[in-house]
Structures are given as C-alpha cells and as structure tokens.
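Illustration: Peroxidase.
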Amino acid sequence: MRDVTDTPLELDDIQSGTLRPRPTPYAATYILLRIDDREAGRKLMERLSTVVASAGNSRDPVGDTWLSVALTFHGLKALGVPRASLESFAWEFRQGMAARAKALGDTGESSPEHWEKPLGTPDVHVVLVALAPDTRRLEAALARARNALEALEGVEAIWRQDCHALPTQREPFGFRDGISYPAIEGSGIPGTNSRESPLKAGEFVLGYPDEMGGLPPMPLPEVLGRNGTYVAFRKLHQRVAAFRQYLRANSSSPEDEELLAAKLMGRWRSGAPLALCPFHDAPELGADPRRNNDFLYRQEDPTGYVTPPGCHIRRANPRDASVAGVVRLHRMIRRGTAYGPALPEGVLEDDGADRGLMFAFIGAHLGRQFEFVQSEWVDSGDFLGLGTIKDPIVGASDGAGSFSIPRRPIPRRLQGLPRFVVTRGGEYGFMPGLRALRWLADLRT
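Result:
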C-alpha cells in the first residue's frame, strides 16, 4: 500500500469539512442563505474566511467544532464572479441539482416540484454547515455563523435543518451509518479499509493529480479553484414504517426479518458486514472501526451468495468486484446526518413525522462520481448484470421493484419493492479553499 502522506496537501487552505471524518456522536445544523446585496455577500465571505475551520487544524478532530461553507452557482453569480470564471466550473454544477433530477432518479414524488422550498430554487446561494460533538458546542459554531451574518442586511437566512448523530451511529432505518471512509493520499487521515489502497487526492480536492494521472478540471483563476471541491447536498425522507412493514410481510420470523434487512443492506443493523459474519449479527464487530469495514469481495464472496450483488453497500461501493478497474474513479466521501424524531422501536404505522438523512457527497468530479453512482449503480443494475433492478434501499422504486437473494438450490426473490427513500430537496455546492474565500471577498467587479 502507498503511504497516505506521500502527496502533501495544503491542509491549511482546505476546509475541514472536506476531509476530516465527523466525530461520534455529533450534532449539526444546515443553514441556507440568500445574497440580496453583492457587497454584503462579499463581506460575508471575508468574515467566513476567518471562522471556517481548516483541515490542517492540529487538534483531535473528535474534539473539533466546525463551520463549513459552500456556494451554489447562483451564489457565485450573486457575488459577481466574472463570467469567464463562472463558465470554468463543472457543467453539472452550473446546471444545478434540480435541473439534473431525471438523471439522478428524482422523478415522481421525488421530483423538484415536490421539493421542500427553497431547496432547488435560485434563492439558495450559500450553504453553511455547523458541526460539533454535542449541542452545547454546536451552539458555539452557530454563534460564529451568527456573528458572520451580523449587520449584513443584504444576506438573509432562508432555511434551517437541525440534525444529529447518536452514539450508536444508527440512521432512521436502524443501521449503523458512517462506516466506510476512503484513505486519501496526503491527508494524514487513514481510511476504514486497510485493504484498500489510498486514493489520489485529486479525486476529492481540486489542484492535485487524480486516479486518471492528470489534474481534474479546475475553476479559474487558480486561486478560486485550488483546494476546493464539489459537494452534493441531499435531504432524504425515509419511510421507516413502510420499511418495517415490508420486512414483516416478507419474513417468517423476527430472526428472518433481521436477516432480510441485512441482505437488502449488505450489513446487519449493528454495522457488522455480511461478508465477515454471514449467518448472524455480531454487534462487537459492528462497533469496531478497525474491523467493520475491513473486507473485499473478490476472495470472500465473488458470486454474492453472502452479500447479494444488488444490495445497497455493494452497489454504493463494489470494492474489488469485477468492475474493480473503474471503481476507484467513482469513489466519494459520503456523510449522512439523521434529522427528525426516531420512530419508536416496533411501531409499524407511520406517525406523520418528517425523518431521514441530510446527506453530503464530496468529490472533485460531480459527473463521474455522484451522478454516475446515482444513475448507473443505484438506479440501474446493468453493471451487475441485473438489468433495470434498482438499489432496494435508496433506489427510485415504484412499487414494482424486485430483489434477488442468491441461495441454493433456488434464489429467494422479493417482489413489490416500494420507494423507501424520497428526495425532499438538494443542491450542488462548491466548497472553496480559505484563500478562495478571501478572493471572493476582494472581488471588485
């Protein structure tokens, strides 16, 4: 394995929220801003450049309290970024997530006309994310955000979503989340799979060589693009009661219910992967970050008899499977944060509460990372030889979905998979480096 430090990164210029894993547990708040006055927006950039945390912070990240910032394409225009610079950004980013809805599977009830406003509208200019190990320290991060907004009458907060990550790291469906994290060359931060070689920094941060061997396209001028990255924010509503009902209706016992849930996900609810414990849950393994992601597929389970080929985690990251030659070109940093109250254990009826995940997908290539995975691996089964069969957990199913669990002598087949996850909104953002924030503040056009 290559040393994760063999390609130095300018960590002091990279936002902490780009690279550093989040603490456990933690609380977070997403705030959307609209810029009505160009000069006020530039003043905001100046203030944020002094309070946004850098990845070079030498403190233990578990104890950190972070404030991160991203700008939408409409936000960059509101700041008066020159046209030549605007046209140098990735074309998916320039279009915006709402315009890319069909390619992302955001159709039907997940389509932009049903999104929670102002998500997906031209009013969203800035995305602030405050994060801390607990609500007390989160308030300190929010205080820094409020100080940055103080007396800026031309900038308005237009939306807020409070989130949380429990000590159990469970998401609303009940599975441990936030397990898989890639090693990135030069970051000094190890990945969670010792059997996966570190990825080139240019897959996640602009201005460095990527897995293709060259520099990924970068916004111009260099001071604006270098050490920045793209981020896809998603608000995903989870139909927890519907998920529980489906498991109950298609299982013969509580034990079979848990096995079915694990087969759909690829992991037991504790986080223990089927690849390492195929017959029963192993909570100690699931809670061990040194072991719960330390596996591959080619040797342990090439045919998918243990971890079904179409399950969620095998689609999201095929690891060293038969498509291994291209998997590294589609890796992302994924971060999910639960929102809303938990549905009490054992309850099968929906209580009407809004609950789910705020997701952030970070990478230098929106097209071949986030959009490719959504369209080709989540909402299509061609790369697995499964045709039109979608991801059973997050795929855009319509009630006619199916799922096959390899089993001898006859596979177990599930029919009538409904849509368990509905997109409530999203945005494409650009997370600039700290120097870029100051450049934006100094614009004089």
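Reading the tokens back as a structure: The first strand starts at residue 26 and ends at 35.
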